[in-house]
Design brief:
The N and C termini lie far apart (71 Å). The chain is 61% helix and 0% strand. The longest helix is centred in the middle third of the chain and has 24 residues. By secondary structure, the chain is an all-alpha fold. It is flat and about 65 Å long. It is built from 16 helices and no strands. Helix 6 crosses helix 13 and helix 14 packs antiparallel against helix 15.
């Protein structure tokens, strides 16, 4: 018996009856020989971890655009925090940790530079629309590895597509990542807002802190414990009504005081203009697109979608450098 088969057998013996077992995966779009060591979801996790799009997350905005300071979150550190939250919950509930990790590590691969400002800019200017969860799936299915994609399992791609609040993944592991994403950004965005002098923990209304605790460290612990205690042994991932209500109120508080805060978002208008101008430029100058993007056009992909592919793959730094190269006059060297 191969090592992979032994690991799959261990899953049968240990995991919850409601867990997604590696041996029962719905499979991949393209059939391929199984690894003799790794079950399918572990293999997917590794493919995501080694992808170019994953490495680019380190230079993409989470909330604060190009912050001065070493400790503000980036899209990469957000992803790692989501993954850790998800694995903690999955382990306690005896769900498939490798599946939740693969979904968590891949859930934001298609995110734009400049955070949700970049996403809104592309969605507003492109008639085809743009959403980062759909782009993340497009990234793993088509854009990675020179147009071949990563050939991930159905379960991982479904979890990536449905990681947002409105999503409805078909695995419990996907639902764990849905909650873990919210828990992560509420926790670390508050932490970054305090670091940036936008908020103090004492600003959070008492009706919220009476339910989930006084500070962000207590909040994350309370959220995770509540999910585990209310989901254990059930075929669903749920929170208690009081804690779910407090989370919703805290999220609304964050939107009103951080995500739309004039100080925190003072540079967003410039970022949106930059993205829109890059979009307009590449739509009018498709010959300036990279070779791999031109190959997508040759395959019949719409120009507007390919331009979104190119821009959404950029890091903040690369987007600014590209804008400078196109629009800012260079110095005369004589």
């Amino acid at each position: 018996m191969q090592i992979r088969e032994r690991l799959e057998k261990r899953e049968e013996q240990y995991l919850s009856p409601y867990a997604c077992h590696s041996a029962k995966s719905k499979g991949r779009d393209r059939a391929e020989e199984e690894c003799d060591i790794r079950p399918v979801f572990q293999r997917d996790r590794d493919r995501i971890l080694h992808s170019k799009s994953f490495r680019r997350l380190k230079d993409k905005t989470q909330v604060f655009l190009t912050p001065e300071g070493d400790h503000y979150r980036t899209r990469l550190t957000h992803t790692l925090e989501v993954s850790q939250n998800a694995r903690t919950i999955a382990k306690a509930l005896r769900l498939n940790e490798e599946l939740v990790e693969a979904i968590a590590l891949g859930h934001d691969l298609g995110h734009t530079p400049f955070g949700h400002a970049g996403e809104r800019a592309l969605n507003n200017i492109c008639y085809l629309g743009f959403s980062h969860n759909e782009q993340s799936v497009r990234t793993v299915e088509l854009l990675e590895k020179g147009g071949v994609g990563l050939n991930l399992t159905v379960e991982v791609r479904d979890g990536i597509l449905n990681h947002q609040i409105r999503g409805n993944p078909f695995t419990l592991e996907g639902h764990v990542v849905r909650y873990s994403d919210k828990i992560a950004y509420i926790h670390h965005d508050m932490d970054d807002a305090i670091r940036g002098g936008i908020l103090k923990e004492s600003d959070v209304p008492k009706e919220i802190t009476d339910v989930i605790g006084r500070d962000s460290a207590e909040w994350i612990d309370h959220f995770i414990h509540d999910i585990v205690s209310n989901s254990y042994g059930k075929n669903c991932i749920v929170m208690s009504e009081p804690v779910a209500g407090a989370m919703g109120k805290l999220r609304q508080f964050m939107f009103e005081n951080v995500y739309t805060n004039s100080r925190a978002k003072s540079e967003e208008g410039k970022a949106i203009m930059l993205v829109e101008m890059l979009y307009d430029y590449f739509c009018k100058n498709k010959d300036r697109l990279p070779e791999e993007m031109l190959m997508l056009l040759d395959k019949g992909e719409p120009l507007e979608r390919v331009v979104c592919d190119h821009i959404s793959a950029m890091t903040d730094r690369y987007a600014i450098a590209t804008f400078d190269e196109i629009y800012v006059p260079a110095s005369w060297h004589g």
